[in-house]
Automatic annotation (TrEMBL):
Database matches in Gene3D superfamilies: 3.30.1370.30, 3.30.1490.10
Top-rank taxon, per record: Bacteria
Functional summary from the UniProt entry: One of the primary rRNA binding proteins, it binds directly to 16S rRNA central domain where it helps coordinate assembly of the platform of the 30S subunit.
Protein name according to UniProt: Small ribosomal subunit protein uS8
Organism expressing this protein natively: candidate division WWE3 bacterium RIFCSPLOWO2_01_FULL_42_11
GO-annotated biological processes: translation
Gene from which the chain derives: rpsH
Stretches of the chain forming a coiled coil according to its record: none
UniProt keyword Ion transport present: no
């Protein structure tokens, strides 16, 4: 099961029905992607918590909305999948929606935006795109 794709689908669906907070299963990669979304202004808050006595961690993602009520996240797309990994070098990384969106890349130095990866002269696996 692709936990990243599952979390992205939950975020997309929740933003379409104007939910304020969603809970997703914890994963270090998902936490890093969510924190990047928070830094870039797509989420308002990311919190890790334990679920009751069961001991499993979860992530609470607080969705962000514009003053007019439209969601900050219009759409999400999983790029690299378990059946087909998509890699890009610094030169091959493209902007999302002519620079209005964000592309998330997994590099040797961790998860970052393609803008940051270009600055650091890194390539890696393209995880997802958000706009």
């Amino acid at each position: 099961m692709d936990t990243i794709a599952n979390a992205l689908s939950q975020i997309k669906n929740a933003s379409r029905v104007n939910k304020s907070v969603i809970e997703v299963n914890y994963s270090g990669v998902i936490e890093n992607v969510a924190n990047l979304f928070k830094t870039e202004g797509y989420l308002s808050d990311v919190r890790v918590f334990k679920e009751g006595n069961r001991g499993g961690k979860k992530l609470a993602l607080h969705l962000k909305y514009n003053p007019d009520g439209t969601p900050a996240i219009t759409d999400l797309r999983r790029v690299s999948k378990s059946g087909q990994r998509i890699y890009a070098t610094k030169k091959n990384m493209k902007d999302v929606m002519n620079g209005l969106g964000l592309s998330v890349v997994s590099t040797s130095l961790g998860i970052m935006s393609t803008k940051e990866a270009r600055k650091r002269d890194l390539g890696g696996e393209i995880i997802c795109e958000v706009w």
